[in-house]
C-alpha cells in the first residue's frame, strides 16, 4: 500500500484509511521568530551522542505540513512521519541515498525461509528515557500496531505479517502469512517504529506529546500547528551520523507565508511545499539557493473499466496515444515535474518505459486508427474528474491541459467535473467516474509498491480492471528476492498495463528544498524515501 501526497495536503496514502487534514489559516511566522531565540540558546548544549556533531546552530526548517499524530500507530501522513522518523528507531532503515533496507536497531536480519524473517538486535539499545530496548519491545510494537489498527495509521502496511515472536532479549522472528519479498522494506518504514512498552498503552494511542523513542533525536518541545524542536539524543545507537545538535520544524498554514519567512530569514530552510511560482521567485533572491532532488510523487489518469466509454480498451489506448506528458509538465507545473511512462517510478529497480515503447510520441493519426479499428465513432464523449481540495491549485491546470490535448485531436469531447476530497474518495471507488485524477506517493522504494495496490485482486482504486496474468505475476515477484525474476515480472506487468491502459502514468514530481546561505547538507537531506534532517548543518 502506498501513500497519496500533494502540494497542498498532508496525506500520504490512498489505501486503507485515507485521511486528510484541515488547515488552520493562522499564520505562525511570528511564533517562529520567538522560537529562534529558544533554538539559539539550546543549540550550543552538550552533545553526548557520539553521532551528533556538525552545525554551529539550530537549523530552522519551515513547512506547510502538519502532524496528525505523534504515535506511530496513528500516523500515516508525511508531516507526522517527519517527526516519527526522527524520534523513533526501526529494525531496518533506508540509508541516505539508498533504496535497499539495512539494519538499524538490528545487527542483522535474513529470511530463513520465504515466510520467516529473523533479526538479531544490536546489544545495549536503550530508549531516550533509559528503558532497555529488547526483543520484547519490538514484539510489543508490532503487536500493538496491528492490534490497534488505527483508521489513520499505517497498520495496513503489515498486511503480510502473521505474528511477531521474541526469542530471548535480542532475537526477533517475523512470521508471514505468505511470501513477501518487500517485508524488509516495510520494516524500514515508520510502520516499523519501535516504541517503549513501559510508556505506550497496549490497546490505544498515546495522548499528548511526551513521546519516547530510541532514534537520533528527542522531541524537546512541541506545539501543534506551530513548531517542534528536536535535540540530538544522548542515548541513540544507530547508523545515522548527525550534522546538527538541534533542528526545529516551523509549521505554516500557507505557502505564501513560508516563502516570506525564507526571504526574511525567519527560517533558514523550507521543505514541503512552495508553489512553482514561489520557487521561481526565490531562485532570483540573493542569499538563497533552491535545490532539486528526485521525488516519488506521481500522478495518474485512471479509468474505471466498468463505466462507459472507459470500458472499451480502444478508448483507453487512444487516450494513451495522444496524451502529451511534456506538455502537462510545462503548462501545469512550470517544468517542476518530469514525464512518467510507467506505473513504476523513475529510478526504481524494475522500471521500464512501457508507455513510451508502446505509443511513442503523441500521435493523432494513430489514435484515430485505434478507434476506427474498434468500430468507435469519434468524437468520443469522456468525463474526467478531479478534486480542487486535494492536489493543489495546479491540479486545475492539469485537468484543463488534459481536456485541451484530447479535444485538440477532434477525437474526444471531454467533460470536466470537480468534487471535494471527502466525496471524491467515495466516488472513485463506486464506479462513478469514467476517468479521474489520482496522485501516488509510495511508502517503499520498491516496484511492487507502485503496482500491486492498483492491480491486485483487491485494488485500492475503482478501476474495474481485473487481469489474472498480472495478478499471477504479482504473486511471482512477491514470492522471491531474486532480482532477475522480479525485474522480468515487473517488465511483463508494465507491458501488459501499457497495452490495456487501465491507468495512464503522467508525471513524477521532484523534491525541492530552499536554503539560505550557511545551511549545509541539503543535497543529501533531499532523499526520496524521507527528508533527512540529520544531514543538515550550519556554518
Automatic annotation (TrEMBL):
Biological processes per GO annotation: peptide transport
PANTHER family reported for this sequence: PERIPLASMIC BINDING COMPONENT OF ABC TRANSPORTER, PERIPLASMIC OLIGOPEPTIDE-BINDING PROTEIN-RELATED
MF annotations from Gene Ontology: peptide transmembrane transporter activity
Protein name: Peptide/nickel transport system substrate-binding protein
Principal place of residence: other
ATP-binding found in the keyword field: no
This protein's UniProt keywords: Signal, Transport
Segments forming domain Solute-binding protein family: 101-458
Cell compartment(s), UniProt: Cell envelope
Record carries keyword Acyltransferase: no
One GO CC term on file: ATP-binding cassette (ABC) transporter complex
Pfam hit, one: SBP_bac_5
Species for this entry: Actinacidiphila alni
Family named by the database record: Belongs to the bacterial solute-binding protein 5 family.
Amino acid at each position: 500500500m502506498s501513500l497519496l501526497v500533494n502540494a497542498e495536503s498532508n496525506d500520504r496514502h490512498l489505501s486503507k484509511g485515507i485521511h486528510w487534514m484541515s488547515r488552520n489559516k493562522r499564520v505562525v511566522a511570528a511564533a517562529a521568530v520567538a522560537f529562534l531565540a529558544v533554538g539559539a540558546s539550546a543549540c550550543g548544549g552538550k552533545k553526548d551522542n557520539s553521532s551528533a556533531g556538525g552545525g554551529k546552530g539550530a537549523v530552522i526548517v519551515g513547512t506547510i505540513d502538519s502532524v496528525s499524530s505523534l504515535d506511530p500507530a496513528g500516523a500515516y501522513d508525511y508531516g507526522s512521519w517527519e517527526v516519527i522518523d526522527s524520534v523513533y528507531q526501526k529494525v531496518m532503515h533506508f540509508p541516505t541515498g539508498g533504496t535497499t533496507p539495512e539494519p538499524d536497531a538490528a545487527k542483522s536480519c535474513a529470511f530463513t525461509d520465504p515466510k520467516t524473517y529473523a533479526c538479531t538486535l544490536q546489544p545495549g539499545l536503550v530508549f531516550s528515557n533509559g528503558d532497555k530496548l529488547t526483543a520484547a519491545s519490538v514484539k510489543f510494537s508490532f503487536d500493538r500496531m496491528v492490534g490497534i489498527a488505527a483508521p489513520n495509521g499505517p497498520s495496513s502496511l503489515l498486511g503480510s505479517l502473521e505474528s511477531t515472536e521474541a526469542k530471548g532479549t535480542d532475537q526477533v522472528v517475523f512470521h508471514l502469512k505468505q511470501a513477501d519479498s518487500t517485508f524488509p522494506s516495510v520494516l524500514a518504514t515508520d510502520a516499523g517504529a519501535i516504541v517503549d512498552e513501559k510508556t505506550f498503552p497496549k490497546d490505544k494511542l498515546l495522548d499528548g506529546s511526551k513521546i519516547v523513542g530510541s532514534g537520533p533525536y528527542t522531541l524537546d518541545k512541541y506545539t501543534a500547528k506551530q513548531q517542534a524542536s528536536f535535540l540530538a539524543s544522548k542515548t541513540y545507537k544507530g547508523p545515522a551520523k548527525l550534522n546538527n545538535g538541534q533542528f526545529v520544524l516551523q509549521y505554516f498554514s500557507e505557502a505564501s507565508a513560508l516563502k516570506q519567512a525564507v526571504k526574511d530569514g525567519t527560517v533558514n530552510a523550507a521543505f514541503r511545499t512552495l508553489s512553482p511560482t514561489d520557487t521561481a521567485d526565490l531562485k532570483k533572491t540573493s542569499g538563497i539557493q533552491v535545490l532539486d532532488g528526485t521525488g516519488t510523487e506521481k500522478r495518474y489518469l485512471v479509468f474505471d473499466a466498468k463505466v462507459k466509454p472507459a470500458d472499451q480498451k480502444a478508448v483507453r489506448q487512444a487516450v494513451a496515444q495522444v496524451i502529451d506528458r511534456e506538455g502537462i509538465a510545462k503548462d501545469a507545473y512550470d517544468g517542476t515535474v518530469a514525464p512518467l511512462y510507467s506505473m513504476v517510478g523513475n529510478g526504481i529497480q524494475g522500471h521500464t518505459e512501457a508507455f513510451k515503447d508502446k505509443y511513442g510520441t503523441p500521435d493523432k493519426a494513430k489514435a484515430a486508427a485505434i478507434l476506427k479499428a474498434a468500430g468507435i465513432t469519434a468524437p468520443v464523449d469522456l468525463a474526467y474528474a478531479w478534486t480542487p481540495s486535494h492536489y493543489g491549485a495546479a491540479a486545475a491546470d492539469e485537468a484543463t491541459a488534459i481536456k485541451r490535448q484530447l479535444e485538440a485531436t477532434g477525437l474526444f469531447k471531454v467533460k470536466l467535473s470537480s468534487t471535494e476530497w471527502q466525496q471524491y474518495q467515495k466516488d472513485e471507488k463506486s464506479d462513478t467516474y469514467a476517468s479521474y485524477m489520482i496522485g501516488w506517493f509510495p511508502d517503499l522504494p520498491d516496484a511492487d509498491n507502485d503496482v500491486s495496490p492498483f492491480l491486485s485482486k483487491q485494488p485500492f482504486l475503482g478501476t474495474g480492471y481485473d487481469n489474472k496474468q498480472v495478478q499471477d505475476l504479482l504473486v511471482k515477484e512477491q514470492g522471491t528476492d531474486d532480482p532477475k525474476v522480479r525485474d522480468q515480472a515487473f517488465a511483463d506487468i508494465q507491458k501488459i498495463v501499457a497495452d490495456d491502459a487501465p491507468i495512464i502514468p503522467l508525471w513524477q514530481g521532484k523534491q525541492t528544498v530552499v536554503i539560505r546561505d550557511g545551511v549545509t547538507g541539503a543535497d543529501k537531506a533531499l532523499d526520496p524515501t524521507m527528508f533527512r534532517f540529520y544531514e543538515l548543518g550550519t556554518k
